[in-house]
Amino acid sequence: MSGRPVLPGRDDDPDRLYTITRGRSRSPENAFDLVTLIVAERRPVPGMQSEHARILRMCEAPTAVVELAAELALPISVVKILLGDLLESGAVTARHPRFAPTKARLPDLDTLKQVLHGLQQL
Amino acid sequence: MAFNSSDPASGGPTSGPGAGPATGRTPLRATADNALKIVVVGGFGVGKTTLVGSVSEIRPLNTEEVMTKAGEGVDPAGAWGKRSTTVAFDFGRITLSASQVLYLFGAPGQERFWFLWDRLFSGALGAVVLVDTRRLEDSWYAIDRLEHHGTPFIVARNNFGEPTHTLDQIREALDLAAEVPLVDCDARDRESGKRVLIELVRHLTALAEAAAPLAAAPLAGAAAPLAGVAVTAEAEAPVTPEYEESTP
Fold first, then answer.
1. Is residue B146 part of a domain?
2. Has the ipTM of the complex gone over 0.95?
């Protein structure tokens, strides 16, 4: 094992993650996919937890959970916990991926046609 | 304020409308409402990030997920502690239309990553296994796991120069089923990367088309049923008209 590369700006200090999530470790696993698009419905307010405020700023345009995690330099599950707070308070809404693999293992032909078309336009 | 805005003119919490922090991010369109996933799997150094970067509209980003060894969320105090391990991965994205955006993930093929596969990549359209002929054995495990997870995939050989093996030789070395497409690519080249993704989507389309008649079969079967099946179904269905919903 070569170990993971050292990533600049990333801070995995357990104490920091514990503080940010206020001790919570279980994310609302089913509430967000990696590519659920998050949209802010409110502006940040003074006194708000800084990570919450940053998420609201980034989500002025739809932003995927995974992009939030990368920009905040926080693990996905930590971001999901923070998003759970914001969703609960109505500060954000979530646009979930429409392709649900539990119903059908293969994507529908319409979706594939659109993806193919999109790729060919690149 | 703790935010390091690169725009000194828009300081303070009451900055003007639409004045997002200028971090160099390329936001999605406001109409984006459906994101799709494709995963590029491969061993260390095979060119996953290069492939993702060559087709992505954003500079590939890196992020990570935490995995607790004892099981997720069992021990709140310890979950962010020493007993957890992290896996990092890259991603990029391609805007397909006003509403659809495709996320491309570069995932390491190593063993520990597969513990997180379902959590991260359930719902992926499919996968590309990127192989390097000098280290084909790195991809055996990934191919095995994808088959196990039932994720449709194609294999792309990242070909940096003069090939020393034919694709047939690679197919044989990987023990790859005839129906799994195997293509050559140059991960550095945008057009080549595009062709790999298109090949995957065509493969998925062929699989979906092949599966479609099966899905429609029960309907056809109702019209011309196997006698035994129909009798059983009738016998088990209680004839209770009072349960019928009235349709005004």
1. yes
2. no
